[in-house]
Amino acid sequence: MVIIGGLVMTQQNATYVTRDFASMSNFPVYDTNTGVWSSRSATGTVSTGPRLLHNAVLGTDDTSIIVCCGLGQKSTDIFNDVLVLDTRTWSWTLPTVAGTFPPPRDDATAVMVNGQMIVLFGEDAEGVVLNDTVILDTRTTPFRWTTTFEPAKNDPLAVVGGVGGIVGIVCGVLVIAAVAIFLLIRKPWVKRHKPNPEISPAPAVANHDPVWFPTP
Known about the structure:
Layout: E1 7-11, E2 17-21, E3 26-31, E4 36-41, E5 55-58, E6 64-71, E7 78-86, E8 91-93, E9 97-99, E10 109-113, E11 116-120, E12 133-137, E13 143-146, H1 162-186
Parallel strand pairs: 9-13
Antiparallel strand pairs: 1-2, 3-4, 5-6, 6-7, 7-8, 10-11, 11-12, 12-13
InterPro entries: Kelch-typ_b-propeller (IPR015915)
Protein name: Galactose oxidase
Keywords: Kelch repeat, Membrane, Repeat, Transmembrane, Transmembrane helix
């Protein structure tokens, strides 16, 4: 995480705090992997000087930070320029940008989508809230300001989660097929009866009348 520009507040005493613009050549960096703060110094010249209320997004190369717009040290210094910080070399460049530049603004919102930096709203030098949306297309060389957004081409596999989704579906189908075959062969719902052993007839018992003998 790189903190670029803004204000640095210093507590001078219990009741007094000074506010100074942060340098655009020195900034704190937080490593989210190690949890360690460090300080970095950048080379190159940022012609417009310090700023705040600007926008910064990560470039599609995952190493460049694209900064635009913002408020300078004077209330009338409102920018619509574009700066690029290369975090591999920690150097600033001012890229060539084509197209019609949008009105200068500060306090806008920006997000990078499909290589296009979408800048929304903000305020102008008079404090008037802007209601437009402008787009910096970083996919082209040079970059280009435009008002048309191009979504990513539809991936036919995206609806099922890409290749991983296809693999999961195939595995699921195979499991279901195996279970169905097992059920068809074994038919566990059919109650099977064991054959009864042959019952042998009970032996006949002779029925004899009692014999009476005379008493002597």
